[in-house]
Write a structure and sequence with these properties.
Order of helices and strands of chain A: EEEEEEEEEEE
Largest interface: A-B, 24 and 19 residues
Number of helices of chain A: 0
Radius of gyration of chain A: 13 Å
Largest sheet of chain B: 6 strands, mixed
Helix content of chain B: under 10%
Structural class of chain B: mainly beta
Oligomer: heterodimer
Shape of chain A: globular
Largest sheet of chain A: 7 strands, mixed
Number of strands of chain A: 11
Structural class of chain A: mainly beta
Shape of chain B: globular
Strand content of chain A: over 45%
Strand content of chain B: over 45%
Chain lengths: 114, 116
C-alpha cells in the first residue's frame, strides 16, 4: 500500500516556466489537499478537493491551478513560475469513514525557481 | 476565529530528559479534532495522534503522551526520556467538525533538538 505518492521529488525551474506536480493516492480517499511549506514556517493550504470534479481555493491559491478528474489523482499546476514559489510542496489525502480527518502526506516535492 | 498557537519555536534538550511541547487552540465550535504531526529531518510529515473534543482522556503511546484540557484549550505533547531520534519539528493542528472540507488549521511548529 503506497499511500500518497508525489512526483517529482526535486525540481529546478526557470522563472516563467510551467510544470505540474503529480499526486496520487491509493487509499480511495475523497479529500485531497495541496500545501506549501516555506523554511521555518508551517503549512499553508493552496487548494483542496472534496471529491472528483470538485476543487476549491485554500489560503494561498494565486499562481497555481488544480484539477481532480479521478479520485486517485490531484495534480498541481504552476503556470508561470516565480521565485516566490520556491518551496516544499506536500500533497495529502483524508478519508470519510473511521479515521476521517486524518491527513496522510506524500514525501513532498522540493521546488526551486531561479 | 480558529487558531493554533505553538509558542515554543525551538527547544533543545539533552537525551533522556523529558520535554513538553505546548499547543493552545482557539475555536468556537463545540465539536472539533486536534492532531499532532512529526516532521523529522528527512522532511516527511508523520501523523502521531488525533483526539476529538469529547474525549479528554490522556493518551499514552510508549514514550509519548498527550494531555488534552478543554478548560485551557490546550493539547500538550510530552516525550519522556527523549532520544536523538525524537529530533524533529512537531506540528499541532485543529480541524472543526462543521463543514465539508476537513481542512486543518496548523500551528507553526516546534523544532525539537535532542542532543546526545
Amino acid at each position: 500500500n503506497a499511500g500518497v505518492t508525489q512526483t517529482p521529488k526535486f525540481r529546478i525551474l526557470k522563472i516563467g516556466q510551467s510544470m505540474t506536480l503529480q499526486c496520487t493516492q491509493d487509499m480511495n480517499h475523497n479529500y485531497m489537499y495541496w500545501y506549501r511549506q516555506d523554511p521555518g514556517m508551517g503549512l499553508k493550504l493552496i487548494y483542496y478537493s472534496v471529491g472528483a470534479g470538485i476543487t476549491d481555493k485554500g489560503e494561498v491559491p494565486n499562481g497555481y491551478n488544480v484539477s481532480r478528474s479521478t479520485t486517485e489523482d490531484f495534480p498541481l499546476r504552476l503556470e508561470l513560475a516565480a521565485p516566490s514559489q520556491t518551496s516544499v510542496y506536500f500533497c495529502a489525502s483524508s478519508g470519510t469513514e473511521g479515521k476521517k480527518n486524518i491527513q496522510y502526506f506524500g514525501a513532498g516535492t522540493r521546488l526551486s525557481v531561479l | 476565529a480558529q487558531k493554533v498557537t505553538q509558542a515554543q519555536t525551538e527547544i533543545s534538550v539533552v537525551e533522556k530528559e523529558d520535554v513538553t511541547l505546548d499547543c493552545v487552540y482557539e475555536t468556537r465550535d463545540t465539536t472539533y479534532y486536534l492532531f499532532w504531526y512529526k516532521q523529522p529531518p528527512s522532511g516527511e510529515l508523520v501523523f502521531l495522534i488525533r483526539r476529538n473534543s469529547f474525549d479528554e482522556q490522556n493518551e499514552i503511546s510508549g514514550r509519548y503522551s498527550w494531555n488534552f484540557q478543554k478548560s485551557t484549550s490546550s493539547f500538550n505533547f510530552t516525550i519522556t526520556a527523549s532520544q536523538v531520534v525524537d529530533s524533529a519539528v512537531y506540528f499541532c493542528a485543529l480541524s472543526e467538525n462543521a463543514g465539508n472540507n476537513r481542512k486543518l488549521i496548523w500551528g507553526l511548529g516546534t523544532s525539537l533538538a535532542v542532543n546526545p
